[in-house]
Amino acid sequence: xxxxLELVSRLIQIAEPLFQSExxxxxxxxxATQVFRRLEAxxxxxxxxHARYPACxxxxxxxxPHTERQTEFSPIAEAIRALEPHLSWSRRMSGRDGSVDYVExxxxxxxxxxxxTESRLDVQLGFSIMAPxxxxxxxxxxxxxxxxxxxxxxxxxxxGDWFDPGIxxxxxxxxxxxxxxKSGELPFLALWCLLM
Length: 196
Ligand SMILES: [Fe+2]
Hints:
By secondary structure, the chain is α+β, with helices and mostly antiparallel strands. It has one domain (6-195): Jelly Rolls (Sandwich). The protein is 23% helix and 22% strand. It is built from four helices and eight strands. The chain has helices at residues 6-18, 26-38, 59-67, 74-83, and strands at residues 88-90, 106-112, 123-130, 144-149, 154-157, 170-173, 179-182, 188-195. A six-stranded antiparallel β-sheet has the order 1-2-3-8-4-6. It has a two-stranded antiparallel ribbon with strand order 5-7. It starts with 5 loop residues before the first helix and ends with a strand. It binds fe (ii) ion. Fe (ii) ion binds next to loops.
């Protein structure tokens, strides 16, 4: 690809202010500022991951709270839905304390980042889907990361308590700090961005 897809431009435009919400910690907003600054420049190394996974089938249900009625998050839900045919998907296969079926019941959609719709190594912008009642394993990674939650869901950082930042709320994961997430009665959907 030599130009940014219009669908990617639109998604970036809608996602950027969501990461600047007061409902995110300041450090999360700062990470996002750096990520979206880099995203001003189009960059694509052409790598594509075409595999699909069972949890991709949860996308529609996860988006439903914002596609079946008009909410503050309907624009981002529609932008994700429109990009679906162009996304790449991946899964985490290891980590501590994940629910027994977490591998089959979660998936990550990559928009901008390695193998994604716009494949690049300097940032990651994507989202995670989990089926109901899934506990994603504890994990950590050197790049820092910001999340915006689009459904109900809970996060845990280091050995702290589980907490639900609320729809539109988010978290910041400091470099290499352990974190995890889990869904409740409904599917989980959260946007994230990482500064690589
Ligand atoms: Fe993470």
